[in-house]
Amino acid sequence: MNQHSSVILSSTLLLAEEAKASRENLMKQLLRQKQIPMHSWDDLQIRYLFTYLSALDSNNFPNHTGVGEREGRVFSQIVKERHFYLSHGIGRSGDIKSSQPKATGSSIVSQLANAMALHAIHLSGIRNAKECVVVPCSTGMALTLCMLNFRRQKPAASHVLWSRIDQKSCFKSILAAGYTPQILQLKIDDNNDQLKMTLEDLEVAIENLGVPNILCVMTTTSCFAPRIPDDIINVAKICKRLNVFHLVNNAYGLQCDKICNIVEEASRVGRVDAFVQSTDKNFMVPVGATIIGSFERSIIDSIAQLYPGRASASPLIDLVITLLSMGQDGYLELRKKRKTLFDDFKQKLSILAAKYDEKVLSTPKNTISMAMTLSKLDSALKSAEITKLGSMLFTRQCSGARVVVKGQGKLIEGIIFEGWMSHYPNYTCSYLNVAVAIGLESREIDRFLKILEDCLCKIYSRSSE
Amino acid sequence: MNQHSSVILSSTLLLAEEAKASRENLMKQLLRQKQIPMHSWDDLQIRYLFTYLSALDSNNFPNHTGVGEREGRVFSQIVKERHFYLSHGIGRSGDIKSSQPKATGSSIVSQLANAMALHAIHLSGIRNAKECVVVPCSTGMALTLCMLNFRRQKPAASHVLWSRIDQKSCFKSILAAGYTPQILQLKIDDNNDQLKMTLEDLEVAIENLGVPNILCVMTTTSCFAPRIPDDIINVAKICKRLNVFHLVNNAYGLQCDKICNIVEEASRVGRVDAFVQSTDKNFMVPVGATIIGSFERSIIDSIAQLYPGRASASPLIDLVITLLSMGQDGYLELRKKRKTLFDDFKQKLSILAAKYDEKVLSTPKNTISMAMTLSKLDSALKSAEITKLGSMLFTRQCSGARVVVKGQGKLIEGIIFEGWMSHYPNYTCSYLNVAVAIGLESREIDRFLKILEDCLCKIYSRSSE
Amino acid sequence: MNQHSSVILSSTLLLAEEAKASRENLMKQLLRQKQIPMHSWDDLQIRYLFTYLSALDSNNFPNHTGVGEREGRVFSQIVKERHFYLSHGIGRSGDIKSSQPKATGSSIVSQLANAMALHAIHLSGIRNAKECVVVPCSTGMALTLCMLNFRRQKPAASHVLWSRIDQKSCFKSILAAGYTPQILQLKIDDNNDQLKMTLEDLEVAIENLGVPNILCVMTTTSCFAPRIPDDIINVAKICKRLNVFHLVNNAYGLQCDKICNIVEEASRVGRVDAFVQSTDKNFMVPVGATIIGSFERSIIDSIAQLYPGRASASPLIDLVITLLSMGQDGYLELRKKRKTLFDDFKQKLSILAAKYDEKVLSTPKNTISMAMTLSKLDSALKSAEITKLGSMLFTRQCSGARVVVKGQGKLIEGIIFEGWMSHYPNYTCSYLNVAVAIGLESREIDRFLKILEDCLCKIYSRSSE
Amino acid sequence: MNQHSSVILSSTLLLAEEAKASRENLMKQLLRQKQIPMHSWDDLQIRYLFTYLSALDSNNFPNHTGVGEREGRVFSQIVKERHFYLSHGIGRSGDIKSSQPKATGSSIVSQLANAMALHAIHLSGIRNAKECVVVPCSTGMALTLCMLNFRRQKPAASHVLWSRIDQKSCFKSILAAGYTPQILQLKIDDNNDQLKMTLEDLEVAIENLGVPNILCVMTTTSCFAPRIPDDIINVAKICKRLNVFHLVNNAYGLQCDKICNIVEEASRVGRVDAFVQSTDKNFMVPVGATIIGSFERSIIDSIAQLYPGRASASPLIDLVITLLSMGQDGYLELRKKRKTLFDDFKQKLSILAAKYDEKVLSTPKNTISMAMTLSKLDSALKSAEITKLGSMLFTRQCSGARVVVKGQGKLIEGIIFEGWMSHYPNYTCSYLNVAVAIGLESREIDRFLKILEDCLCKIYSRSSE
């Protein structure tokens, strides 16, 4: 644009236009490559992109005239602005990955979200992943969708094999899909405190039920210690051998290199049909979407076509903004920091535990969560004190620390889970869980340890009375 | 707050504090009554509310320390702001309507959305509705959820009875839930051009399949002319008599008094288990959520408990903001205007049609959509011209006008739909659909008619060559 | 950008790109013509523009490295966003209209503001105006700047002739510039209730002081009734004849056709060196800037060069956004509506006044403000009641209604103004002022009249006791 | 608010309300103490405050009815939001520090800005400062305002004594106020490369002009090397002795401890009537306001009363947000970092200079700016190359580095400044200026040095040809 040349020095205008051009190049590069940029985008650049995209949607056309039943009309100015004037959502009734003729901008958002999510999966270590889809629903619902999709190829099956993990929505995802969960109970490891599923149990269960009755095996990677990730490499081998679908619940495992390497390896030596992860837990966005990944494009296409209708673009917008804002280097840095903080937290917690004659449970295979015993309270039969510890932490604004009282049962949808929350009927002791998730700050660790010590000091002095 | 009294005149401060108090009263009243306010809230009032709510979520606590795997951390400042610092989503793993201990503010958003949606349902004319839940997924997916929920009470059923409507996601919602659709073909009305399902066909189909094999009957209220809403009052009677679930797809029917009155009446004289409507089509928000309503609280509770996990709060935030921004009077005014514009549009379109020896099909029972014949093109065997009309309109920035070419078939998931898009194998002529949806402006009608005339003029002169 | 062609249908992409192109054309046209667009811009279009402009400022350059003392660094993210990432302000130390090499985007904002303000002046009826500058300071300060500028050509002058208007900042603008105000007292018109300056008084004053001692005559167009605008056409003739600077305080007169026509005519037949108007009062923006206009480019250039340093761009951004958002048609419509409402309000107020044996003062030459007598309170010697009326209105959230108690004096900077607020030592009665300014809504008039009646009813019944 | 207790657990609601209460306490504390908070406020807290304040302004009253000429109406939604719905500006026509009855919220913003600015002045080291006012105009204009204010006490004076500094707006601020600048030429220091004013010159000038003719002495603290800050301690003593106003131009000196200590000391041992600093250069806000500080409340009150009219609140809003966002600790940390980076930059630049047989000029008393000689280019008579270096740096996105060519003159408002930009008719060599201002990042230094080396390499190899 040369229209201001009379007033503004041509040399400075040139420089300004160059700067603008380099912003547009960044944008073009993104639209072409659909990859997370190497370096962080600043907020202006992000707004640049969304201003461009919004102009492509028909509801923003200068002379738009809508005479249909769904025209992207938005009543509130606040709502318009918070969605950058995009309102058509993602997908078409036939396919959640489809482009909408009415909404080119929203369609590009959807493509970017899917492509950048796949890129993030690759960066995280699952390099063989072929395709993914970001679905604006919970992880549990996404697992349900996977099962509903498997059903199309195996309509007669009735059961899902599932290694116990005490997190309601995993269990409920099976029920929601209309299947009977066959629960594989865990075992305590011989050499340390870990809880794990065994391959023997799995094989016995398959044999008992019979392959034709089994829709899939659902394994879990990320979980609260002392449970550890399932041995999905060997499960994948068994599933491959027996021709059973294998669905991996990788809820917050994507943030961890070790887990990603295992998923990758499992897909190489065995069978992994889909792996499912939440966006909020792995990418620091508000709760809202789940990434379903696969090593075969056709599986993702099939799931995308299963979803009946259009869906909210909002969680995809969040993901795109966040990955642009992180850049590849920012994302990798956050992952590295998480690993470092995990070791750091474990060490510091061990020292604190020792002061109170407790210990951090030995769970070397769980690289996200850890657990500190509360044995003294058990031995003093003070389970009320244990519960109290939880609420003391919470009222001191510490959230996420989970107190597990030994041996309490719970009835869920007709099934009794003995030792609920500990994944096991009668674990050796009560304990306290903490996790090191992406985005945790070291000052949070320090503040937590200080508060925990205060609380323990109060409780232990009382409980020893 | 009395701290500035020294500088600011106490009288004006008093008035200012009074004004502030009246804003807070509005807010308190909303939180207590959970009803759409009588009058529109201004944007400042809406921001007042969300600023208050966001301070209640743990991720915004001044000294918050998070040591769990899901702490509401948000990386991007832009993302934070667009969600008003709310990040925990809605629901708990056990129940999408549950309050989250970590997120009181988000929990209130969820309650408000559900309560205000119910209020809107009542205002729309379905006064007996007892409960509803706003689910952040497509209408089709919400229908699937309803069916998955029915399955729990009728696990052996295999079929869903469905009166044909040529909208993919309705059909696919049945497949996604794992059921076989039993399609009820439509009939042309004796006295006019309407397409309708017949009760005889329904009763025959039920008899043939046998009640135990039928999960539910799925009826449709809002549809493109010449199809008309199903006779859900009598379907409801049959379902009640035979004890079959009845699911009403009320996608964009909530905006229409007539349709709402019918749903209400159906629930009084017969059986309606759930009725499902989109938020974007009825309330002018971006695509993102669906309201599932029922006349029995327990059904909604059961659906809410089926959903496995947390979900995006974003579409609920949009709904709350929009209903506050409309107020009851604004909402009712918009509905009234829609009705007036419908009559107006029909009349003007009839005049235009007459000019070209065409007519508006006689479909008095469809009060949202209408259709103008394109018979001359049929008789001249110019189906390519018909298709062209559609794209001419689109390139002139008219969206939503649907051109239906007589007698074209389509294969969807293994089933051939003859006369796809017209709900009928061989309708009497090709036609053009338009709809009068909430939020339509009269200048859009005028601009559309002008453009349509231009296009017809071009095509008809050409086709008559 | 052709990079998404593989996924998105080329036809719809084409349409989308066309829509985008038409947005960019609007923008290019604006930057080329620097005129208020014919029609309102939507908010997306406005954001489009500012996103483009912000990328042109050096602080937003992708690799910007600043090693100076002023680099446009902004600490707070909120502050960044509210200024669209622009931070360099306007002007250079030598000239407030100059372009900044570091800040092409901000410089364009400044040019746009000045050019669009001039366009608005033309549209308002002052078609001969040659140039203007938007200065981010109060109207009073802008008047001071004009006088400081005149001083450069007439350094020995000591007095400013000023027809009395009881608005502090006009008076103080003279003092701030270091001049002695020579106050011309007003006269009551023979035929009606109007207060006006007389040309005789002006000529006498000039003669008494001597032209060399007079810096300028400062006249006023917009004022509270019963004062009327000065007869600036004839003042302009006198100033031309005697070669005296003539400065017109047109504070909120720009919104009124009649006043603008007079200013225009004055410039044709006589001398008007500069006319000064506030942006907030004429264009519905927050308080912040003043437009200094002139019929000679050199005068504005000289004022622009007088201002020592850079200034806030924020009020200019507001003006640009607002004029884009109004469009020419919106702006003219608002002016027309104001005129209609003025007549309407006057009529309704007259009816109300008559009910209480009061009247609206006859001030046909004041086309913005009107006054209703409060004679009965005067005659009952109830000046406290009059004051009370003002506060009653204020506590009922009516602002802007000014109650003027007959004959109260005030000392300002050493000078006593008898009958302060009424522009006159001893006007015939107390009265109530209201004004019809641009943006007033008819429902405000109705609400005001209702409340006024309530208050009068209370006070008059009491005062007649 | 207890209205959600039925649904939300009372314990978590309690915690949420506690968190909300602690936010409100922060706000109350701020409004009571009007001090920069100890620690940074997060953005939510800042929005909390402004949402509260905006509700206090009459234009936001729920039933507001405005019948005046200035009612805070805002046309554009974007403009409303960017000003947090505040629109009344600051001050009244009588006093820019006055509270507006119509606008309690805006009035509080103004009070906060002034009080927090004073707090910042104290934190910066000028602990005796008694009062300040934030004026939304340039530093130069603020200096003009100070002089206009002094005029009221000394109407007969005609000259301002001013030690030369080659920055146009300082010089022009004197002219704008209507005074004749008496320029004190600088001397080169005996022991090093510094340029400084001498007290002898000052005393001679005073004697020559005569005290009654002198309005004030205007000194400068922050300046480009090799000029150094004026010896304001001794100037203050002289001004006190001779009873002459002393005005300190502290444009970007507030960020530097050393300079602040000197201003403080000067006020203790001598006379400093007002000291003036820009907000953008010292506090990382967009260009827009200036802080005028004084050691006597009455001086500030008098300046505040001089300003005729209301002014933009926008730059004050920026300042308040920014100081809240920094907190005391953040502000002090930024200052500390600046000091460290200054030493660092100087050392690195010296090393680079040495490589090219140049040096960093010895100017130990200038603690913000430094200068590197370009002597080789001088000796090769390559002044075009020197100019070229400047533009090479600029086109590589380095801004703020100033290249000064030896001995070029400039005519400004009728006065020739020999050796313009170097503050001196014929400095010993050409040189390059850089400054270390608050907010500079060490990566900027490194990038600059790299680019400078590249440029020097190109130019010196060429110039040595």
Automatic annotation (TrEMBL), chains A, B, C, D:
* Assigned keywords, A-Z: Cytoplasm, Protein biosynthesis, Pyridoxal phosphate, RNA-binding, Selenium, Transferase, tRNA-binding
What this chain does, per the entry, is described as:
Converts O-phosphoseryl-tRNA(Sec) to selenocysteinyl-tRNA(Sec) required for selenoprotein biosynthesis.
Q: Where does tRNA bind?
A: R268, R396
Q: Which residues are marked as site: May act as a substrate filter by repelling compounds with a negatively charged alpha-carboxylate?
A: E69
What pathway is this protein said to act in by its record? Aminoacyl-tRNA biosynthesis; selenocysteinyl-tRNA(Sec) biosynthesis; selenocysteinyl-tRNA(Sec) from L-seryl-tRNA(Sec) (archaeal/eukaryal route): step 2/2
Source organism (scientific name):
Romanomermis culicivorax
Instruction: Indicate what this protein is called per its UniProt record.
Output: O-phosphoseryl-tRNA(Sec) selenium transferase
UniProt binding sites for pyridoxal 5'-phosphate: R70
